[in-house]
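Q: Here's a chain of 310 amino acids. Please give me its 3D structure as tokens.
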Amino acid sequence: MNFQRVDVQTHAKINLTLDVLGKRQDGYHNIRSIMQSLSLNDRVSLTKTEGGISVECTHPEVPCGSSNLAFRAAQELKEAADVNYGVHIRLFKNIPVAAGLGGGSADAAAVLRGLNRLWNTGFDINKLREIGRRIGADVPFCLTGGTVLAEGIGEELTPLKPISRIWMVLFKPPFGVSTAEIYNAHDRLKRKYSQSTEAFLVEMEQRNIDTMVAAMGNALEETTADLYPEVANIISRLKARGVQKTFMCGSGPTVCAIAASRAAAERLKKEYTDFNGKIFIAYTVPRAQVFLKRERKKGGEGWKKGSLHL
């Protein structure tokens, strides 16, 4: 179909477990992680143009030039498909920026999937993942999402059975962290190898949500907490309050607190009115993206609405 515009809803990701296995010769790190899509989402609007690539964003801290992952995704797809079209990308941000929740990667994945339809390039998911790997380690996961075992640098993906809905409260401090800085510090401090992923997989076989939650963990948490004491303070305060499980998201600085229900999550959020940052309530979801709207040019049809799952 000859669409002129598509809107895509794209979801955040969280590392329910993150084990760092070591640094590779290319500078990346091998990991083992359970990656999971979350309800927290951005909306990415793509309008076909005859010119180049442009980006605008609702968040003032997000760059709109060639350093933006959404821009790079469009550029990589354009080169791979050898098309003459351009695109105007509008990013409506709800996923916090520089939070360890994969917002930039999610937006890039949405651009790849959306432009694959808008430009009618016809690439399959394997080709899109190949392109995504050139943009960022989390982009291949964000193309499909769900519950996945991620290995290598995050690009070796093994789909797992969906887990039951888990509610959580996300505490995002008023600053971001550099992923490279955290990994470099982790190497320098010679942290011990953790095995939270293997423990999670064992408990997953039993389908016991409580023991699965207990197995969640992040090998980078101690490093980030050492460099940024506010992260350590959030975790300490939540543990003192008796929260079932806390762990840091990705390289940080966001801290996740697991809640027994939506009501419990809302109560926990209300207790932290003095928190100097932002608090989000989220839950696990079974997929990464959904097409929200499509617009044809002919006849002024307006929106062709649908919920076409990717």
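Q: Can you summarize the key feature?
A: The longest strand covers residues 3-23.
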